[in-house]
Amino acid sequence: MAPAEHDEGAGKAAVPARSYWRWHRDDFFPEPSFASWGAYRRALGETPSRLRDRLAGRSTDAAELGALRRRSENEMRRCLTWWDLTWFGFGSVIGAGIFVLTGQEAHDHAGPAIVLSYVASGLSAMLSVFCYTEFAVEIPVAGGSFAYLRVELGDAAAFIAAANLILESVIGTAAVARSWTSYLASLINKPASALRIHAPGLAPGYDELDPIAVVVIAVTATLAMLTAKGTSRVNWVASAVHVVVIGFVIVAGFIHANPANLRPFMPYGVPGVFRAAAIVYFAYGGFDNIATMAEETKNPSRDIPLGLLGSMSVITAIYCIMALVLSMMQPYTAIDTSAAYSVAFASVGMHWAQYVVALGALKGMTTVLLVGALGQARYTTHIARSHIIPPVFALVHPRTGTPVHATALIAVCSACIALFSSLDVLSSLLSVSTLFIFMMMATALLVRRYYVRGVTTRTHALRFTALLLLIVASSVGIAAYWGTSPERWQGYVVLVPAWAAATLGIQLLVPAARAPKVWGVPLVPWLPSLSIATNLFLMGSLGKDAFIRFGVCTAVMLVYYVLVGLHATYDVAHGACGGEEDDDGDAAADGEKKKVVAASDVEKADAAGGAL
């Protein structure tokens, strides 16, 4: 950050001279709409007009980088490099997904073809990584996808993302923490549920209490509160040890591999492969935590592409190889669904190896929780900066330079979920939420490239909107057709060409309105459009129970938005809290005009694949 901006933020923080630990009502609800019951009733009466205002409202790059960051009162410290981000990538991604979900999905849905499931989900994840990387370089703030969607799709879309991000943070942490307990039990040669407390009075799936998961969440969250750089050091040492364990698993596994175990390769058919792919996508979900650390990165334009793309490329290869090893060590029907790798080594006579694997899994899951505590708190911090949730959670501690309140919020909620809910209840809901956000990110990238207010003509805007809707609609159609009639092909004859025609239409009929300044996704609009299609396709491969849970959670979130979030963000956007207006105004539109390059230059940049 420029020194002047830092000084301005510091000056604003110094004027109130207030303690970081504040718990008054105004710290949670400072907006005029919540000043009294009468004011709240008036705000509720204006809900339709306020909703229209927020649907049309947009933030700007400058607002996210300036006004919103100053609401934290203290700066996060720029202390991270590409080396930190690369190891954060390993630490945040390799954990419960590969060690737990691989066995679960190979046994239940894919068989040895679980390798193809990892290829499919990895391909979709890499497309999302491209989108995240461009946004993180252009808008290096802690909010990640929430900030990016707020700029390109508006407040309402950003709220949907914010709600799902918090849901994803809470459920993801809880799922990994419960897996941690299972592998600890394996390490001491006990059944997976031996360290949990059985509560027969509760419903199945919620009747095994896990106090160890609660303790693990508390410890990792405390470290994340104390220091970002110190957490990075702990992470890369633990991740390095974890990589050594993974190397052992691969080498020893291939030594004891039996190719006969790969037959039948696809016992559940192609639908089983994609059903498993949608679930194991959870294994790739942690990479978005890296984007949230852009605000603390010394050189975002260089460090983020190196950290994100480098770590995810290696991780995708590791996942596919490890899935192949597991499938060759045991018949898919014999794979243990709770501690697959440990049991697999025991089955080939390497009983001692199960302890190495269990220890490596514990290390991996610990770093996932550690990096998750960092990244999820930064999402929450930026969401609170917008006042969608109480702004007290946006505050950065003056001594540690970390968002202590936001970290504690996610930790407490995750611990409550982890205490009761089993992994199979959590993972499918988490996958729907993750895939939905990644689909929105790809949509936002297309909007960023092809629409700039005050630059894009009305004709081109309408044309772009129609073609983008056709991309989404055809992708939804493909996913729905696959989910209902996977053995039939006639529908694809219409739907796939429709998707391709819409994507080609954007390329040929809508001039690009903006080019990336430093690093850009190559082959736009094709790669973002493909990301939309693959994420929706994987969503369509999930069972109906996941969508029922997702629908219920979304309905609860929308009720909260209408009753609270809408009125808080409306007041802030219109300066009613003494803050700066966030919406994109005429001055911002004029600024955007200056940044726009000729469409021919954009096409050349896209053809070259972007510059790293």
Automatic annotation (TrEMBL):
Membrane topology field: Multi-pass membrane protein
Primary location class? membrane
Keyword terms of this UniProt record: Amino-acid transport, Membrane, Transmembrane, Transmembrane helix, Transport
Q: Name one GO molecular function term.
A: transmembrane transporter activity
Keyword Glycosyltransferase carried by entry: no
What's the superkingdom here?
Eukaryota
Q: Where are the transmembrane segments?
A: 79-101, 113-135, 156-177, 211-228, 235-256, 268-287, 308-332, 352-375, 429-452, 464-483, 489-510, 522-540, 546-564
CC terms in the record's Gene Ontology section: plasma membrane
GO terms (BP aspect): amino acid transport
Q: Which InterPro entries does this UniProt record tie to the protein?
A: AA/rel_permease1, CAT_C
Q: Does the keyword Ion transport apply?
A: no
The cellular location(s) given in this protein's UniProt record come to:
Membrane
**What residues does the Cationic amino acid transporter C-terminal domain cover?**
519-568
| Similarity field | Belongs to the amino acid-polyamine-organocation (APC) superfamily. Cationic amino acid transporter (CAT) (TC 2.A.3.3) family.
Q: What is this protein called?
A: Cationic amino acid transporter C-terminal domain-containing protein
